[in-house]
Each structure stands twice: as structure tokens, then as C-alpha cells.
Amino acid sequence: xxxxxxxxxxxxxxxxxxxxxxxxxxxxxxxxxxxxxxxxxxxxxxxxxxxxxxxxxxxxxxxxxxxxxxxxxxxxxxxxxxxxxxxxxxxxxxxxxxxxxxxxxxxxxxxxxxxxxxxxxxxxxxxxxxxxxxxxxxxxxxxxxxxxxxxxxxxxxxxxxxxxxxxxxxxxxxxxxxxxxxxxxxxxxxxxxxxxxxxxxxxxxxxxxxxxxxxxxxxxxxxxxxxxxxxxxxxxxxxxxxxxxxxxxxxxxxxxxxxxxxxxxxxxxxxxxxxxxxxxxxxxxxxxxxxxxxxxxxxxxxxxxxxxxxxxxxxxxxxxxxxxxxxxxxxxxxxxxxxxxxxxxxxxxxxxxxxxxxxxxxxxxxxxxxxxxxxxxxxxxxxxxxxxxxxxxxxxxxxxxxxxxxxxxxxxxxxxxxxxxxxxxxxxxxx
Length: 431
Prior knowledge:
The chain is of the alpha/beta class. Helix content is about 50%, strand content about 10%. The chain is built from 15 helices and six strands. It has a six-stranded mixed β-sheet with strand order 5-4-1-2-3-6, sandwiched between helices.
């Protein structure tokens, strides 16, 4: 009989309904709340064996009490208190580091597992308006031999919108309820052509230009009568339980034996569809150390993802230069900070479960974070910005390869297209 498992969830950067800032001069493109610049819907699941729960709770409270002895803290110890201003692990101070190390050691000793969900908000905007068009590409026989994967097409469009749509013309077209899919694609096509003309002859972007040229051909040869997919940019929260189900099944557990613990604001959609039947909702984290653990880890990961995303953005005035992380990301780590890196790597980035991290098609900043932890956990001279960029690009290419293989695999097992596979629950929901 499979043992009972308790699963605790917390999220950062929720923005369940994504709005667009229409002011062209505004640096920010979306309504990522005043305190939230996280590019992804960042969620952490903490998975514990039920028979270990009481011991975990008692030891976690002890860790909190030890922290309070040295630090004046009113009420609950939250991730927002521990990690007020951090861009890198090097910014974690000794007091916060001590608490985090104790927590990570406790998770390790309890045999706990964690899963990071990082679903890109920008991808929601693109896919919401263009989903039907993307699906139509797979049914277009003249185009079928030119498509590696419609998910790669989505990645390319999102990357263009996030990094090159400086005037927000494409973004505003996506937000214009009067525009048809065809009109939106025409705006996209024009933006791609302008980028190609402006940057032709620059070796660093040669591959990107080829990708955009391929996308222009796809747009020009695709159907002009695709129905609009809608305009309300709601985050597809059913991605979360879908990803959790993959993790749980890969761990050899039965979803029916899992109890999901959710706080007051956590979404509940999609769990029953993935055979999770024991859901506890509207919980107060003050009463559940597991929820407090998820909060601390989700705040940390949310801040790191935001930092990597911001620092990896290209300077449009210097497109010929490769974008490297600043030296602050590669300053020497203290003994405590190194311990955090190693333990987080063991628990998350080096997890034997292939679904320890689940993400959207566009996830460059996720790969940048993974690459940094991979390098930081090693003891050699490769901990530098050049090596980091190289490792990040390798991970991104691996993602492309996996998307192409997935398309081939679906054809082999008898699925005509991605929509059929999604409706059968074989593929992640497509926004």
C-alpha cells in the first residue's frame, strides 16, 4: 500500500489576470503588481511523508524559535522578511542564511521533495490570442514539413515580444479586442521584418534572424481565417496540478494518497482532473509549518528568477554584444552561501525527478538560474559569466530538441496533432 503524502503549496507573482500597460513610454509591459516584478507564476510544492509530518512540524518550530532568540520578529517568519532585497545568493545575509540552512537540512533529513513551477506570464498573453492559429499550423499540410513544433513557434513569438517589441506595437495589437488574428499576425510580421533589417550583418544575432525569417514564412503561408481565441488574459492555473501530477507519478506515488494543503489565496482548479481528491483549502499558514516552508522557498526562487530575467535582457543599442551576467553574480560565496547552493542543488536542481522543475515553452531565465546553480555548486574555475552563458544556451537548445522529439513522439503513438494530445491529458494544457 502506498504511504500517505502531504503536499504544501505557496506561490509568488500570481497576477491571475494579466493586464497590459498601454502607455508606450512605460518601462513595464504588464500589471505585475507594484511589489511583484516576477516574470513567471512561481509556485513551490513541498512534499512530505505523512508519517514524518509531526516530527517535521516540531523541528520547524524549533528552527523558528532559535531565529527569534537572535532576531526581533513579530508573528510569522515569512520569506519576505528573510529575503527583503536580494538579487543573488551572495545577497543573503548570515542571519537569513542560518535559518535557510537549518530548513534545508531539515527537508533533507525528512526525505522531503520540492517542485518548482515557473510558468511565464508573457506566454499567457501570446497564447491566449494566438492559440487557435498555433493549433491550425499542425493541420496545414503545406506547412507541416516546415514545423519542428508549434511550441517552438510560441517560444519564438514570446521571445520577440519580451525582448524586441520596444514600441509595444505587437503587445498592443494582442490587447486590441477589435483586431483579428490575421491583423495581429501582420503586426508581428512587420516587427520581425524591422528587426531583421536593423540587425542584419551582426554575427551574434545571425541564428535569431534565421529563426525570425522562418517565422515570417510560416505567417505568410498560414490560414487567414483563424478564429480569435479570446482576449481575457487569465493565468491557466490548471498547469500547476498537471505539473504536480507528473512529479508525483514519476516519484512512484499515487495522487489519490496525496493530501494537498492550500492557503487562503491558492487556486484550486485542476486538481480533481489529475486524480488529486484530498484537497484542504483556505488554510492559515500560521497553523501549518509546511505552508510556511513553501512560502520561504517560493519567495527565494521568485526573487532569483526575476533577477536573472532582468539581467539577461539585451541592450538594443548594443546588439552586437553578448549579454553576460554582471560580476556580482560571480563574486565569492561565503561558507554559508555555498552551503545553501549545494543543498538547493541537491534538493531541486539535481533532483532525480525529471519534473522537479516545470516551466513554459519560453523559460530562458529559468535555464539561466539552473545554469548558475550548476556552476556555483562546483569547485572549479568555471564560475564566471562566459561559462554561464554557454551553459544557459546548452539548456535552451536541449529544450528545443525536446519539443521537436515530443512532436515526433505524438505522431508515432497515433495523435494527429497537439490539441488531441492535450485533450487526452498527454500534453500540458496550452493556455
